[in-house]
Amino acid sequence: MKKYIKQIFKLFLPLFLTKIGMFSLSFVDSVMLGYSESEHIGLQSIGDTPVTIILLIMDGLVAGTLFTTSQSFGKKDFVGVGQSLRSALRFGMYLSFITIPCFIFIPQILTLFNYTPEQTEISSNVARILCAAIPFSIMFFICTSFLNGVRKTWVITFFVIFANVINVLLDWILINGAFGTPRLLSVGAAWATSAVRVFMGGGLLLYILLNKDFKKFKIWSKDKNIRVFEKQKNIGLSATSNMLSYELAMSFCLFYVANIDIIQASAYTLAYRIFILSNIIGCCFAEAGVVSCGRYVDNNSKELQKIYEFSFLLNILIMFFVCFVCFLCAKPISFMMTSDTELYSLTIPLLRIASVAMFMRALNSVQIILLRNINCLVSSSVFYNLGFLVVTPVSCVLFGNLFSASGVLWAVVLGNMTVVMFLHCIFVKKGVFSWFFITKNMVYKG
Q1: d(CA 220, CA 385)
Q2: pTM of the full predicted structure?
Q3: How wide is the angle at C-alpha 408 spanned by C-alphas 404 and 410, nearest 5°?
Q4: What per-residue string of b and e applies to 411-430 under the rule 16 or more CB within 10 Å gives b?
């Protein structure tokens, strides 16, 4: 038991610090805007949401890089590790061309919603600026998957920490108009975010290509492996459909709240920033499990099962504590995020509801990624997408009409809970996971 816990936590810690660093980039934007002009939190979120959907699609399409890299590295197939990176970079280069249509059409899409001309103009400018950094975001997704797969996660952590320092400085200057610069508010936050994405994507790619320790992977070789690309493509399509269904459901909820009232959208956005913590923790435990069991995939089902179950159990324990703290500390958390008294009072009950949703979201994040690693792609994706594309929007309309932003967050709770139940049934059917196994080992053998 200690062996698995130590192994998972050794990988979890740098993964968690990295993802917290990524989370803090957008969190700092929201906090600084909350202290400058609270309405711009909602406007920045509206402009950022369609770009985020595109980035999630891109992240999903290259998600197979982590699985193929970790499995090749675990089996000491160093040539396969290099093939995994080359295949992903080649694919990522083609995906970068998505920047052009996004730059043209996303601002046009925002005009379809019931916002004032000023709100539409500001959110459209935010979207255009963020679109410009899409190619570098794709590089970042590929490089982080590769480095995690070869267990060089701390490198990413240091890059992200430095990126946060840059982001804070740029936010302070551009949002508030320091040193005689124009006071750009949400547009300034967008410029800061894009600059940081260029630094992280370009910097990590240069680190990998110029690192002498990676020569054994033969990264510069011109060999192609169709099987690697096919595996990456299948996993990527499954991951993309999952990410897209989730983000579409969450975007529907945000736009629904924004149509009720922009200040309610700002409160919802602040609560959602905290809710994202659940996805971070769940994904960290899942990715730690994926990397830990790389050498066991297709070889040792017993070891695979143990790593999966301990990843899930540790996630449950950590998330219970996090959700409990979030529920109890809703007032100080809200106070920390905004100085606007109205926004502060609206955010408190939303944070308490978000603490319930967080627990469910962390569970299904672990479930879907671990199922993906054993090539369970179709059935898991169907039920995952069903929960978010059907249950969440329908309950959002029903609850939102009754309770405004609070009702919308309860719809998020219901959608995530439905997905957890669906995926648990698939785990049990596959013989990979069962509640009985965990209870038996922890209580009687632990």
Answers
A1: 38
A2: 0.76
A3: 115
A4: bbbbbbbbbbebbbebbeee
